[in-house]
Write a structure and sequence with these properties.
3 helices, mainly beta, four-stranded antiparallel sheet, 34% strand, eight-stranded mixed sheet
Length: 204
């Protein structure tokens, strides 16, 4: 399986990172399968970064093999969604970008893709109108709604499948809304989708 992630897919998040250019196409990057952290296991802060940020996202699970998928058929290729965290070593990312170097290591390091419990898509009337949020130590720190995505889920699947064959079990992190921030040792993170808690873990 592979983890496909989307950058800067919410306008207000782009602004908070200082990006003003228009997104003509989705910003896509990959994480290795070693990035997955599931079943409520703790996230251990890496030694190579002093500023690791949470980025709360809706995550889509691919359920069919597909290549060059038309947008009108894209909804057939995923069967479940959840809340996930795309952890980012922000200081390392900024350093690499400033040097004009690839920044995958700031995104794809071990355990940087936290994943919650999946919920069948058919439970929801419209996956493009889902509320999700993150709390840290009981305080809401980030929230979003999938209707605010610049590129919708079906558009993303159609676009990505031009370059990568989608396989059963692949995960699509669809981008984070405004409100990202740093984490520290001892914090308790909980992620919610439509009011249901799907993600629950500690930072160590």
């Amino acid at each position: 399986m592979k983890i496909i992630a989307v950058g800067m897919n919410y306008a207000l998040h782009k602004q908070e990172l200082g990006h003003t250019e228009e997104n003509r196409e989705p910003v896509i990057f990959l994480k290795p399968d070693s990035a997955i952290l599931k079943q409520g296991k703790p996230f251990f802060l890496p030694t190579f970064s002093k500023e690791v940020h949470y980025e709360t996202e809706l995550v889509v699970r691919i359920c069919r093999l597909g290549k060059c998928i038309a947008p009108r058929f894209a909804h057939r290729y995923y069967d479940a969604v959840t809340v996930g965290i795309d952890f980012t070593a922000r200081d390392l990312q900024q350093k690499l970008r400033a040097e004009g170097k690839p920044w995958e290591i700031s995104k794809g390091f071990d355990n940087s893709a936290v994943i919650g419990d999946f919920v069948p898509v058919n439970r929801f009337k419209d996956v493009q109108n889902l509320n999700f949020h993150l709390t840290i130590d009981g305080n809401k720190v980030q929230e979003g709604n999938t209707r605010d995505m610049i590129f919708k889920i079906d558009e993303l699947i159609a676009y990505i499948s031009q370059f990568y064959t989608l396989k059963i079990g692949d995960l699509l992190y669809t981008g984070t809304p405004v409100g990202v921030g740093p984490v520290s040792i001892g914090q308790h993170l909980e992620g919610y989708l439509e009011g249901e808690k799907l993600l629950d873990f500690y930072v160590r």
